[in-house]
Amino acid sequence: MKRVFLVFLVLLIVFQAGCGTKSYPSANIVRDEANTGGNLSFVYDMNERKVYFGGEGEFLQYYSADEMRDLEEGYRVGLKVIAPNEVKNLEDAVLEINGTTYSEFLEKIDGQEQNYFYIYPTFNEKSKEINFVITWNKNAKPQKYKVILNENTNFLER
Q1: What are phi and psi of 7, to 5 degrees?
Q2: Is 5 within the bounds of a domain?
Q3: Is 119 exposed, middle or buried (0-12, 13-18, 19+ CB in 10 A)?
Q4: Which of 40, 116, 122, 137 could lock onto 76 through a cystine, CB 3.0 to 4.6 A?
């Protein structure tokens, strides 16, 4: 009887832990308030976790380096990524973009971390897709996102 109880207890603990990963809905993604990149079409497919910018006859703007935001010069767009409402603890959130991992990337207002952050993917003639991964907390399943510059988008002259 003790063995049955022990096996039951172990199974209960494993079941309750969810095998180590919790799935959250996709983040809400919108353009940044400044519409970085210019007057471009914007579509976010929340189910596929893909963001599309630009289109036929549209121009992506070029920006100088921005040391305040640690951004290199280039053709970039701005995104505001908002955590799903179901995520209550963002203390251990991790962002990976272009092979670099960030643990302190959430916006802060008066020293308080918010539930959103901004990213500014940079594109060029050869690189028109940017991937990033968010893990909202230690027990969360990583979420993979893709930002795509539509093929027929033009690059505005510098």
Answers
A1: -60, -45
A2: no
A3: buried
A4: 122
* Tokens 């919108």 -> residue: 30
The type of residue at 8 is F
State the pTM of this model. 0.85
**Is 139 part of a structural domain of the chain?**
yes
Structural domain includes residue 137: yes
User: Which domain range does residue 81 map to?
Assistant: 22-155
Domain holding 39: CATH number?
Answer: 2.60.40
Q: Which helix (H) or strand (E) holds 52?
A: strand 50-53
Tokens representing 85 are 């409402």
Query: Is 13 part of a structural domain of the chain?
Result: no
Distance, in Å, from the CA atom of 72 to the CA atom of 53, rounded to the nearest integer, reads: 20
Neighbours of 65 (CB within 10 A): 11
Residue 85: what residue type? N
For strands 143-149 and 50-53, give the pairing.
parallel
Please state the domain count of the chain: 1
